[in-house]
What does this fold into?
Amino acid sequence: MLSILKNAGEGCITYYVGDNVEHISHLRDCRLICTKKFDIDASVIQITTSDPQLHFYKLSHKAKNNFIFSDGGYTIGNDCEIHKSAVIGLGVKIGDNVTIGPNSVIYSNTEIGDDVEIGANCTIGAEGMMWVWDGDTKVFLKQLGGVKIGNNCIIGSNSSIVRGSANELTILEDGVNMAPGCCIGHGTFIGKQTHLANNVSTGGSSYISEYCFIGSSAVVSPGVVIGSTDVTLGSGGVMAKSTEESGVYVGIPAKLLKKTEGKLKGMPQWRKKN
It folds into this structure.
């Protein structure tokens, strides 16, 4: 199984392009593609090459998908309403009381919980675009991960959720709300009861904690961690750095405007100046 570095376990193949041995010291019983030999656990087979990332990306085209939630087709729960124009891929598992709107596509390797609403023209589990140069040719990473959507989620129309790369999942926990037009990158984690307003974008491998509010057209950059609960990111803001502090963040790049305590009681309200 191909694996991203942080998820690499026994029997996996992963890669590393840096020099800090601490980043790979957790590896055991796997294969590591790297630029040089490291002094790490002897159970790790190290394969050296000048471009580990390129080597890994090429391997992805020979690998199988890592997440099949329903063997032999797809599984649909009770009391679901799926529009006749929607497309459900192989290996998809859908819970009870799920609604899927017109022209939405649920790709393979997707699991949807109970009481979920998916609007029209949504794409769940599509491949993102990650690539490296091989001379003058782009080599794309074939994304082999999946999507897991919890219970009681709402996904507005014209939204897209990209599946995880390698052996990672893109995860929406219970009660996540996404207004129309959102785009969720590969491997993103969105904590329970978090609300994304319209046209929010998250970069790959970003993390948003629970009970957060992300305003209209805001961006959470790739790899950024919003590690605290009860964070509000204002409309149009760009969270370019990770934070562990609750509060209201605004601007490009987003900066802390004020600290807050406790989850939102409802949608943030506009306040007139005195």
